[in-house]
Design goal:
Layout lengths: L18 E5 L32 H15 L3 E5 L9 H9 L6 E6 L8 H7 L3 E5 L5 H8 L5 H14 L2 E8 L8 H11 L3 E5 L17 H11 L2 E4 L9 E5 L5 E5 L12 E4 L4 E3 L8 E2 L1 H5 L4 H13 L5 H10 L9 H4 L2
Parallel strand pairs: 1-2, 1-10, 2-3, 3-4, 4-5, 5-6, 6-9
Antiparallel strand pairs: 7-8, 8-9, 10-11, 11-12
The chain binds S-adenosylmethionine (SAM) and iron/sulfur cluster (2 copies).
The site of one iron/sulfur cluster has 11 residues, from helix 10.
Length: 344
């Protein structure tokens, strides 16, 4: 068996494999326009069937190989909406038993968190990133496509805090839609004591009608905040951190900006993404994934699976965000996996 624990598993651009993101469902109770527009993801949309999803045992087996053979230490559960997967706490518990896992986090829209937070914490979840794009019910209700009210997410945030989970907030900023909420969100979450991360609207998938004009760039986000509450940049916590972090001057409160569009960070990208049906994606903007479900179900040995994972990562040369401008300039339409399939 090959041992890559010391980071010797490198891709074609010399990037190690560090993080594994696991999507547990392609379903969601929201229809955010920038992710799962309701007109596309309607009642007849062919979501995955139960037997097409990786089972908890299959997910745990793969995660164990990533941790033991490649030195992955952080796992993130995502979706679709991960809390739509029945009995998710059992999966968290199984993953938390893997020797060597240091951190299990989950990205969620927060709407179902109030009823699950305690159980998830007990099962071994350490942190949640909760997505909330506005504090204004009209704006938020439109953005989530279901009229869900801000209060529902705020009660999820409160429940997560009370359960002892670490909490961060994600806000996607779309020009002409919710940039007016940057300051109210920054003030509110600073007062509440939660780090807020602004995410540039990205051209993930093919259905969200992205165009460059709808991107509210990192530079503007920083300027807007700095004018009202001065901030200064701070050093990354670790290589490969996706958010550029800033501190409110004179305090330890911080914000982050994830600028996949205007300031690409592909050179340090060390993440692999496992979709709910068992495909491994080596980039958020990939067209296809590498099927692991069939090999898992055809009784491959652990060593054979490790060889397969090694060859996938060794062959990786994705750097879509760096190449984006050339695609746009040459009007090349790249077929891309939908965000709801691999979870951001
Ligand atoms: N449903 C969960 C949630 O919303 O947190 C987890 C999955 S969601 C796909 C993961 C993250 O991706 C969320 O923070 C969401 O806001 C973000 N996201 C989705 N589509 C995006 C887009 N087009 N551009 C930027 N971020 C996006
Ligand atoms: Fe659902 Fe999250 Fe996508 Fe919104 S961003 S539609 S909550 S998966
Ligand atoms: Fe990583 Fe792909 Fe995003 Fe670049 S575009 S940072 S390679 S996921």
């Amino acid at each position: 068996m090959q041992d890559h624990k010391n980071g010797s598993l490198l891709d074609k651009l010399n990037r190690p494999l560090r993080d594994l993101r696991i999507s547990v469902t392609d379903k969601c109770n929201f229809r955010c326009q920038y992710c799962m527009p309701a007109e596309i993801f309607g009642p007849d949309f062919p979501f995955l069937k139960k037997n097409e999803l990786l089972s908890f045992e299959e997910i745990t087996r793969l995660a164990t190989l990533f941790v033991h053979s490649f030195g992955v230490k952080k796992l993130r559960i995502t979706g679709g909406e991960p809390l739509m997967r029945r009995d998710l706490a059992s999966l968290i518990q199984m993953l938390s038993m893997i020797d060597g896992v240091e951190d299990i986090a989950m990205t969620t829209n927060g709407s179902l968190l109030a009823r699950h937070a305690n159980q998830l914490k007990k099962a071994g979840l350490s942190r949640v990133t909760i997505s909330l794009d506005s504090l204004n019910n009209d704006i938020f209700g439109k953005m989530n496509g279901k009229g869900v009210q801000v209060e529902e997410v705020l009660s999820g945030i409160q429940a997560a805090k009370e359960a002892g989970l670490g909490v961060k907030i994600n806000m996607v900023v779309q020009k002409g839609v919710n940039e007016s909420e940057i300051i109210p969100m920054a003030k509110f979450f600073r007062e509440q004591g939660y780090p807020l991360r602004f995410i540039e609207f990205m051209d993930v998938g093919n259905t969200n009608r992205w165009d460059m004009k709808s991107v509210y760039p990192k530079k503007k986000i920083i300027e807007d905040i700095h004018t009202v509450m001065p901030i200064e940049p701070i050093e990354p916590n670790y290589i490969g951190e996706v958010a550029t972090r800033y501190r409110y001057i004179g305090s330890s409160d911080e914000i982050g900006v994830i600028s996949s569009v205007t300031d690409a960070f592909c050179s340090t990208c060390n993440r692999a993404r496992l979709s709910a049906e068992g495909k491994l994606f080596t980039c958020l903007f990939a067209s296809t994934g590498h099927d692991l479900r069939e090999p898992l179900r055809s009784d491959l040995s652990d060593n054979q699976l490790i060889d397969l994972l090694t060859s996938i990562w060794n062959g990786r040369k994705d750097q879509y965000s760096i190449d984006r401008n050339s695609y746009l300039k040459e009007n090349i339409k790249k077929d891309k996996i939908e965000m709801s399939r691999i979870g951001g």
